[in-house]
C-alpha cells in the first residue's frame, strides 16, 4: 500500500483556511439572504437558475443536476416553493414521465427583489476584499477544480 502524501504546513494552512472561509461565507450569505429577502439559499438557487433561462423553465432533472441534489430532495423542496407561489410544475411535453419547473411571476419578483442585496453581500464578504489579481486567480483555480470534478478536464486531453 502506497504511503499518503501528507499535506505540508503551508498546504495544511491553505486547506483549513479554505474550509473555514467556505463555511463562514456560506453561513453569512445564507443568513443575510433569509433576513433580507425571506429566501433560503436553495430557494435563491432555484429562482436564479430559472430566471436565467430564456423561457424561465427547466426540466426537474436538469435543475437537480445543477443543484447537485437528488430529484427526490428537489421535488420536496419544490413542493414547499409551490405552496408559496414561487414556482409551478408542468408535465414535460416531449416526455410524459418528466416534469418541468416553471418560474412564476411571484418567483420572478422574489428573485429580482433579492438579487441586489445578495450581490451586495457577495461583494462585501468576498469580492471587494480581493485585488484584481486575486479575483483572476480565484476564477482560474475554481474553474480548474470544477472542471476536474466534473470530468471536463479529461474531455480536453
TrEMBL record:
GO MF annotation terms: DNA-binding transcription factor activity
Domain HTH marR-type: 11-147
InterPro entries: HTH_MarR-typ, MarR/SlyA-like, WH-like_DNA-bd_sf, WH_DNA-bd_sf
Pfam families per record: MarR_2
Single GO BP term: response to stress
PANTHER family, per database record: MARR FAMILY REGULATORY PROTEIN, TRANSCRIPTIONAL REGULATOR, MARR FAMILY
Protein name: Transcriptional regulator, MarR family
Organism listed in the record: Micromonospora echinofusca
Lineage: Bacteria, Bacillati, Actinomycetota, Actinomycetes, Micromonosporales
